Amino acid sequence: MQTLNLLRMKQNIFKYLFLITGFLCTVSFGFGQDAINENQPENQKCLSCHGNHTFKYMNEDFGIEIKEAMCENRLIDTIAYAQSNHGMFKCTDCHSPEYETFPHAGNLRMELMYACNDCHGGDPEYAKFHFDEIEEAFYESMHYNRAPDAFNCWSCHNPHSYKTQASKGGKISETVTYDNNICLKCHADVSQFELLTERESINILKSHSWLPNQELHFKNVRCIECHTQLSDSLLVSHVVMPKEDAIRKCTKCHSENSHLMASLYKYKSLESRKSGGFINAVILNESYVIGANRNQYLNILSVIIFGLVLTGIFIHTLFRIFKRK
Amino acid sequence: MASEKLYLYPIWIRIWHWINAVLFITLLISGISMQYSNPENPLLISFELSVELHNLCGILISINYLLFIFGNLFTSNGKQYKMKSKGLFTRIYNQSIYYLFGMFKKQNAPYPITAENKFNPMQRFIYAIAMYVGFPIIIISGMAMLFPEIIIPQVFGFSGLLLTAMVHVIIGFVLSLFLFIHVYVCTIGSSISNNFKSMITGWH
């Protein structure tokens, strides 16, 4: 009898385990489904060629299949696109529907690309991103003024992979890497750089040789910290300044009134007010900046201890003077 | 008070001592200028210059510290920093009582200076702690700050750089207190300037 009960209990356990596992699978499959771009089937047509390094097509006249390499500039990183801010769009939301026919008509190359404000401008839903102010700042930037016809939003922000970083509250180191890679795409690659300028040589290591602990600075702060004009309303300033105006004074960041709090750590400082006694404490979550980070409690304690020592010395001196005889 | 003059400070100690003093004071001023960096404060030297000075003097004081270590290893001066733990507290207490009360009552120093004991028990204890505990910690943490890529990025959820900097700054503060007390205690001699002259001539 006891053996029979045990057997039934075991069967029940298996039954419940099976039900729980089934439920979890269903739920996780459901969530997975949500994450998939609902425009995927339509985009798949484009990405079957533009998502691969090679593509095939049928030469109808001769009845032969031809395989060709996809031009680097026309290649889309499908994973980055799916994860990007624009990943939910159909290709033809931004590109001409005529692209749906293959071979694509030659005149489509002349198609002008949308700028950010063509979609986001004046839209109250996106007001918090300040697109209009970004555009104004961009027109003031050295980039736009040096190459007004060539430079546009997409010169820095790839529409097929762009993701908002600073305002997500993620790790500062990831924001630094992501944002610096945008600059380095041109400033560390002559082939890209020469598309926008006549200058042929770039050597950012040499031009920043004056910077102490260069590697540490490059890893922990963004190029734009020193190379853009600060903005009160924008999280990321878009007024890129000429190199002559870039910040070179250490105390701009290495001081109590650190510039970093208004740039790299702006979002985090708005989000977090916990200080633990430290000045500019938000920096301490990920880094330490000499001069900008001090502990107020230790400051007070050190002043008290120093004061006591000086008082002790003073009193001892007085006794020595009065007991001299 | 010894009536005969004692030759207490050989030339290498005097050279080491004054180099150490100049470098330490430079490190202290440049360190404070970085820690409390403020371009509007005229009492502080510029951040840029402070970084250069602090790096240079930090390396030089470390090399000078090696002179101190080797000098103490290979000469009899090393013995001046050794002490027996038995009765240490009593000896330090006796010396403190002398500094606080005895010297004002014209009592004799409980541990008079001899060639074998050029430090009184309190000096011996404090100098040994400063030179064999404080200095190694501040040099190692300073070297780590000079090459920050060797510092572990996160230690128990705190920035490794912050912890290293805190250790460096706290030990720097304690050693700066030592400097002030050391200079003051040096004025307690047969005359105010006597001990300073001894560290120049070598004769006490």
TrEMBL record, chain B:
<protein>
    <recommendedName>
        <fullName>Cytochrome b561 bacterial/Ni-hydrogenase domain-containing protein</fullName>
    </recommendedName>
</protein>
<dbReference type="InterPro" id="IPR011577">
    <property type="entry name" value="Cyt_b561_bac/Ni-Hgenase"/>
</dbReference>
<dbReference type="Pfam" id="PF01292">
    <property type="entry name" value="Ni_hydr_CYTB"/>
</dbReference>
<feature type="transmembrane region" description="Helical">
    <location>
        <begin position="167"/>
        <end position="189"/>
    </location>
</feature>
<keyword id="KW-0813">Transport</keyword>
<dbReference type="GO" id="GO:0022904">
    <property type="term" value="P:respiratory electron transport chain"/>
</dbReference>
<dbReference type="GO" id="GO:0005506">
    <property type="term" value="F:iron ion binding"/>
</dbReference>
<feature type="transmembrane region" description="Helical">
    <location>
        <begin position="53"/>
        <end position="74"/>
    </location>
</feature>
<feature type="transmembrane region" description="Helical">
    <location>
        <begin position="12"/>
        <end position="33"/>
    </location>
</feature>
<dbReference type="InterPro" id="IPR051542">
    <property type="entry name" value="Hydrogenase_cytochrome"/>
</dbReference>
<keyword id="KW-0249">Electron transport</keyword>
<keyword id="KW-1133">Transmembrane helix</keyword>
<keyword id="KW-0812">Transmembrane</keyword>
<dbReference type="GO" id="GO:0009055">
    <property type="term" value="F:electron transfer activity"/>
</dbReference>
<keyword id="KW-0472">Membrane</keyword>
<dbReference type="InterPro" id="IPR000516">
    <property type="entry name" value="Ni-dep_Hydgase_cyt-B"/>
</dbReference>
<dbReference type="GO" id="GO:0020037">
    <property type="term" value="F:heme binding"/>
</dbReference>
<dbReference type="InterPro" id="IPR016174">
    <property type="entry name" value="Di-haem_cyt_TM"/>
</dbReference>
<feature type="domain" description="Cytochrome b561 bacterial/Ni-hydrogenase">
    <location>
        <begin position="9"/>
        <end position="202"/>
    </location>
</feature>
<keyword id="KW-0408">Iron</keyword>
<feature type="transmembrane region" description="Helical">
    <location>
        <begin position="125"/>
        <end position="147"/>
    </location>
</feature>
<comment type="similarity">
    <text>Belongs to the HupC/HyaC/HydC family.</text>
</comment>
<keyword id="KW-1003">Cell membrane</keyword>
<dbReference type="GO" id="GO:0005886">
    <property type="term" value="C:plasma membrane"/>
</dbReference>
<keyword id="KW-0349">Heme</keyword>
<keyword id="KW-0479">Metal-binding</keyword>
